[in-house]
Design brief:
The protein is an alpha+beta fold. The chain is built from five helices and 14 strands. Strands 2, 3, 4, 5 and 6 form a five-stranded mixed beta sheet that branches. Strands 1-14-9-10 form a four-stranded antiparallel beta sheet, covered by helices on one side. It comes from Kaistella gelatinilytica.
Length: about 240
């Protein structure tokens, strides 16, 4: 009988040999740093006379792929419900990005690499309330009262809740799920970005994620709770007993 072993990751991984899902430590995706990014963001708002969001609570995590040549591509957001709730912030972030020029490629051992960058977009801070030197004060969601945001405990909880009975694999497989940790600390809008190719097993993954929803403390921007888009990557392999 085969046993299934899970490896669960909550932090960025290398997508391929050519693309990094995060910028290396101490590197920034915009020339001049994040302060320069937000200053340019505000200046473009003023220059183009863009409209503020009527809902001052809108918040969006903009993901961009910054290529080796410093060009950018949008990373598709599969969570349509989250986009609908933050449509103005989503549209604004993408519109401004098209006019921003000072992108900075990541490097590994001195060689430029394509990498995914994430920007916290809280439109209410970027219009008339903007001040030079602005940086959003962001805190990650945390699971329970554990150290390091409870990542290890959440991993254990997910593995313990996944019922693998009745399934058998002959090789490694990979699953990617994304979900929203709401400002109330609940888990909603689970999207399977990469399926196991078995509907029933995907349902068990979703159940394992959903069953933790009451133990989360929400992410915050400038001390204000926000809905946060969270990605879960699960790798598994089987061994013969």
């Amino acid at each position: 009988m085969k046993k299934i072993y899970f490896l669960i990751f909550f932090f960025p991984l290398m997508i391929s040999a050519q693309i990094l899902e995060y910028f290396p430590n101490y590197q920034v995706p915009y020339i001049g740093g994040y302060e320069a990014y937000y200053k340019d963001f505000h200046d473009i708002i003023v220059e183009k006379n863009l409209e503020p969001c009527s809902n001052k609570d809108e918040f969006y995590q903009l993901k961009l792929l910054i290529n080796e040549d410093k060009s950018v591509s949008f990373v598709k957001d599969h969570n349509e419900q989250n986009i609908a709730k933050n449509k103005c912030a989503y549209t604004l972030a993408r519109e401004v990005a098209k006019s921003q020029k000072n992108w900075n490629a990541a490097t590994v051992d001195g060689v430029p690499k394509a990498a995914v960058a994430t920007f916290i977009i809280f439109p209410a801070d970027l219009f008339e309330n903007y001040q030079d030197g602005y940086l959003p004060k962001f805190s990650f969601p945390s699971y329970g009262n554990y150290k390091n945001n409870g990542v290890a405990e959440f991993r254990k909880g997910i593995v313990n809740r996944i019922d693998v009975r009745g399934f058998d694999w002959n090789d490694r497989f990979n699953i990617i799920a994304e979900f929203i940790i709401t400002k109330e600390g609940k888990i909603e809008n689970i999207v399977m970005l990469k399926s196991s190719s078995m509907i029933e097993f995907d349902k068990r993954i979703v159940y394992g994620i959903q069953s933790t929803k009451k133990m989360w403390k929400s992410a915050t921007v400038n001390g204000k709770p926000v809905d946060y888009r969270y990605r879960l990557t699960l790798n598994a392999t089987t061994d013969q007993e």
